[in-house]
Amino acid sequence: MTFIYPTDSNKAHPLPLSPEYKSSIKRAPNKPLIPMRHTLSELTGPVYGHETVRDGDNDLTTQHKGEPIGERIIVHGHVRDEDGRGVPNSLVEIWQANSCGRYVHVRDQHPAPLDPNFTGAGRTVSDAAGYYRFVTIKPGAYPWGNHHNAWRPAHIHLSVFGYSFVTRLVTQMYFPNDPLFPFDPIFNSVPDEKARARMVSSFDLENTKPEWALCYRFDIVLRGKNATPMENH
Amino acid sequence: MKSSGITPSQTVGPFFKYGLTPNGEYAWNDAFTNSTLTPDVTGDRVRIEGRVFDGDGVAVPDVMLEIWQADAQGRFADPQDKRALPNASFRGFARCGTDKDGHYSFETIKPGTVPDPDGKPQAPHIVLAVFGRGMLRHLYTRIYFSDEAGNAADPVLAVVPADRRATLIATREAGKPVYRLDLRLQGDEETVFFDV
């Protein structure tokens, strides 16, 4: 292969062990990760059959008989690598709480209403230039047991594949100016302030649909690849 | 030229199941299953199964695993693999969530040999990514097969300390095309995870 993904890019990610996030304490490896050279196995990546993505899978407000309750929003953005190249045909999957902050999941039993018209899952494929778009409902904040009065800032989970197995990314999109940011150990597990800011969407008035939906823009930047072979370590 | 920094990883959380591995349990269609098999796939069919444990040895019920592998001839279903075309019916990707006791399983085929960057053969292997609550970034590991003589010369296993290699090698059950590999996220028997 002529492309190498530099491991330096990984510095933006949280460390596996972030003690403030209590669930990480028994699940983070104790031993150092072992460096290895990328082979074809790491440099290739899943190829999708488009039959798994159906028309309308990117609109979470039309999956049921009625309309979900809450603030309708458009979420869109550009999937690109850190060298600025758009990533076309990349599968983007999302899942989220409803507008009351409750997930459709047997283990989420906190006393907020479930919405019969909202599952909170969607998927799409980025277009030829790397752009994606969803219609959904703004998720609510919800409590969790991490610490006293712990509430997650409103967020949407995103799963993105990119070009190879080593560009695989699962992240969370947050909303601008959330008062819960300073108190959330997951958001703050990213040590660098500028990197943290890259997980916050921007309010996009320009693409807001009049009298229908507000709009947020969230660009997703995956690892870039150097054009010349280089030693990985 | 670097135009912007990458988006940091965040945990998949405990509630990914209805979004990523619904398996008919939620009002949402499946994009992937725990099987790579298609009716006309060629190669030796195998089942890989095991359990996932945390640092206290407690089963982890909310981990999601993804595998990616070559076909039986060692070719990937990706245009970046410029060698001979892969088996058209085989994509090589599957996804599985653990159950309440931490069990996972994959139905797939034994992959062929894939070259390393120097052209040396790697022993048959599957790459595996581990996502879960408490894991802020997914972990990368590999699955090898206990009945492959090529393991002894595999260039990736060679960089793993000898006393930890067994954590990557799925053990074949006697007389069955079934391999077992437990994953331990932490502790003395911790699975080897790679910095890629």
Quick summary:
Chain A is mostly beta strands and 233 residues long.
Q: Which features does this protein show?
A:
heterodimer; A: 233 residues; mainly beta; Protocatechuate 3,4-Dioxygenase, subunit A; 5-stranded mixed sheet; 4-stranded antiparallel sheet; globular; B: 196 residues; 9-stranded mixed sheet; two-stranded antiparallel sheet; 1 helix; EC 1.13.11.3 (chain B); Intradiol_dOase_core (chain B)
Give a structural overview.
The complex is a heterodimer of chains A (233) and B (196). Chain A has 233 residues and is mainly β. Chain A has one domain: Sandwich (Protocatechuate 3,4-Dioxygenase, subunit A), CATH 2.60.130.10. Helix content of chain A is 4%, strand content 23%. Chain A is built from 2 helices and 12 strands. Chain A has helices spanning 40-43, 193-197, and strands at 34-35, 72-81, 91-95, 121-125, 131-137, 142-143, 151-152, 155-160, 169-174, 202-203, 214-217, 220-222. In chain A, the strands form 3 sheets. In chain A, strands 2, 5, 10, 11 and 12 form a 5-stranded mixed beta sheet that branches. Chain A has a 4-stranded antiparallel beta sheet with strand order 4-3-8-9, with no helix packed on it. In chain A, strand 6 and strand 7 (151-152) form a beta hairpin. Chain A is globular. Chain A starts with 33 loop residues before the first strand and ends in an 11-residue tail after the last strand. Mean pLDDT of chain A is 93; it is low at 229-233. Chain B is mainly β and 196 residues long. Chain B has a single domain, classed as Protocatechuate 3,4-Dioxygenase, subunit A (Sandwich). In chain B, 2% of the residues lie in helices and 29% in strands. Chain B has 1 helix and 12 strands. In chain B, strands 1, 2, 3, 4, 7, 8, 9, 10 and 11 form a 9-stranded mixed beta sheet that branches. The radius of gyration of chain B is 17 Å and the shape is globular. Chain B starts with 16 loop residues before the first helix and ends with a strand. Chains A and B meet through strand 1, helix 1, strand 3, strand 8 and strand 9 of A and helix 1, strand 5, strand 7, strand 8 and strand 12 of B. Strand 1 of chain A pairs parallel with strand 12 (194-195) of chain B. Chain A: Belongs to the intradiol ring-cleavage dioxygenase family. Chain A: InterPro entries: Intradiol_dOase_C, Intradiol_dOase_core, Intradiol_RC_Dioxygenase, PCDO_beta_N, Protocat_dOase_b. Chain A: Keywords: Dioxygenase, Oxidoreductase.
